[in-house]
Specification:
single chain, 445 residues, alpha/beta, Aspartate Aminotransferase, domain 1, Aspartate Aminotransferase, domain 2, 2 domains, seven-stranded mixed beta sheet, four-stranded mixed beta sheet, 15 strands, globular, binds ligand PLZ
Length: 445
């Protein structure tokens, strides 16, 4: 298929899944790729765009995953493709630490403008979400001259040594990979579906800060790191007031408040950043995923005073802020702003919440429907209880996959179905994708 042909925006299955070419590639994967790197579906991608991923056998799958919240502006978004093409023809790499280039500076300017808060900011660029989280911790330690880091139950921050320590869930992220970095402490989260009804945002914050106070102490604490809506941990949106209370405590106690907006950032939640909803202004904001339309890029952006603490040469890396990724980021940001994608995420939220709540009304295994924007989840439980049902989540996801809908699961208990469509998906495809999920759920009764 010529590259310029747009991807047909329809679900179309022309083989069983996986088809023969995918099956053959999966054999090669087994012989060549370390088995530790798993795949959600056994189909190999050939092209993607809008709300569709086309596999190597010509099957058209509805994309409700965006490659784990990355292709928010769509796959191969036109402005991104054009910008990368042009940059690739000019130069692909010089290393910003050797001979710098404008694209890096322009991305820093854009992030300083867009991230929460209108104070003076500085930015440093990296490659992956985990690498940026690590650097946020380095910067906070350098600034405060303290060492401890507080993270939360159900947190996910990455797979490097420090970020494994910060991530909560053992299997598959940590099992057998220790020892982990020290000086990382875990506090209880606000989890409205599982908390007692009397635990509102303020009470949940008091509960968490009591643990921090008793087990760590502000005088030892460099940073408190939190996902404003937890991603891998189960799309857990804390009760209103929880994040503002934590941010306030950090400010009063000389602790750097770090928002990990890796999964929630860049219009995904119906705001440019999830912290914007309650007007929370983090000291440092960590971004990645949706920042660059699919190219690897991440960033730490925050208060100029804090960001300027590390000595010259203390931050960096060969590829951090690669010119292709920077060109892609500028194009992705322009796409979000000019195509009204924040508003589009809210439209997707209405459509998804409405459909999923109707499913919930008829199915007592749907314990909770939650999320914001194009980051929506259902938590599956044993009927009329809060007991997690991970087998059901697996079964529904697998059935949806077989019908050509890419869905992901998540959650500490593995019982959450999550939906992260690209913001370029049509209402019709989105509705059809949810119909398939509803039918998959129905078929398990
Ligand atoms: N912080 C909040 O969601 C990555 C992980 C997929 P990297 N989430 C997807 C997997 O199984 O590896 C993530 C995140 C939050 C940090 C990260 C880490 O980002 O770019 O994967 O390093």
């Amino acid at each position: 298929m010529p590259e310029s042909t747009p991807v047909a925006q329809e679900r179309r299955l022309v083989t069983e899944l996986p088809g023969p070419r995918s099956a053959e590639l999966m054999q090669r994967k087994h012989s060549a790729v370390a088995p530790g790197v798993g795949t959600t579906m056994p189909v190999f991608a050939a092209r993607a765009g809008g709300g569709i991923v086309v596999d190597v056998d010509g099957n058209h799958l509805i994309d409700l995953g965006s490659g784990i919240a990355v292709t928010t502006v769509g796959n191969s978004a036109p402005r991104v493709v054009e910008a990368v093409r042009e940059q690739a023809g000019a130069f692909t790499h010089t290393c910003f630490m050797v001979t710098p280039y404008e694209g890096y500076v322009a991305v820093a300017e854009a992030l300083n403008r867009l991230t929460p808060g209108d104070h003076e900011k500085r930015t440093a660029l990296f490659n992956s979400g985990a690498e940026a989280v690590e650097n946020a911790v380095k910067i906070a330690r350098s600034y405060t001259r303290k060492q401890a880091v507080v993270v939360f139950d159900h947190a996910y921050h990455g797979r490097t040594n420090l970020t494994m320590a910060m991530t909560a869930k053992n299997m598959p992220y940590k099992h057998g990979f220790g020892p982990f970095a020290g000086e990382v402490y875990r506090a209880p989260l606000s989890y409205p579906f599982r908390d007692d009804k009397s635990v509102d945002g303020q009470a949940a914050a008091r509960r968490a800060l009591d643990v921090v106070d008793k087990q760590v102490g502000a005088e030892s604490l460099a940073a408190l790191v939190i996902e404003p809506i937890q991603g891998e941990g189960g799309f857990i949106e804390p009760a209103p007031g929880f994040l503002p209370a934590l941010a306030e405590w950090c400010r009063a106690n000389g602790v750097v408040f770090v928002a990990d907006e890796v999964q929630t950032g860049f219009a995904r939640t119906g705001d440019l950043f999830a912290c914007d909803r309650e007007g929370v202004v983090p000291d440092l904001t960590v971004t990645a995923k949706g920042i660059a339309g699919g190219l690897p890029l991440s960033a730490v952006t925050g208060r100029a005073g804090i960001m300027s603490a590390p000595h010259v040469g203390g931050l960096g890396g060969t590829y951090g802020g690669n010119p292709l990724a920077c060109a892609a980021a500028l194009a992705a940001i322009e796409t979000i702003e000019s195509d009204g994608l924040v508003a589009r995420a809210r439209g997707i939220e209405r459509l998804m919440l409405d459909r999923l709540r109707r499913i919930q009304a008829d199915d007592d295994r749907v314990g909770d429907v939650r999320g914001r924007g194009a980051m929506i989840a259902v938590e599956l439980v044993r009927p009329r209880s809060t007991e997690p049902d991970p087998a059901l989540a697996r079964e529904v996801a697998t059935a949806a996959h077989q019908q050509g809908v890419i869905t992901l699961t998540c959650g500490t208990y593995g019982n959450v179905l999550r939906f992260l469509p690209p913001l370029t998906i049509s209402d019709a495809l989105l509705a059809e994708g949810l119909d398939v999920v509803a039918a998959a759920l129905g078929s398990t009764r």
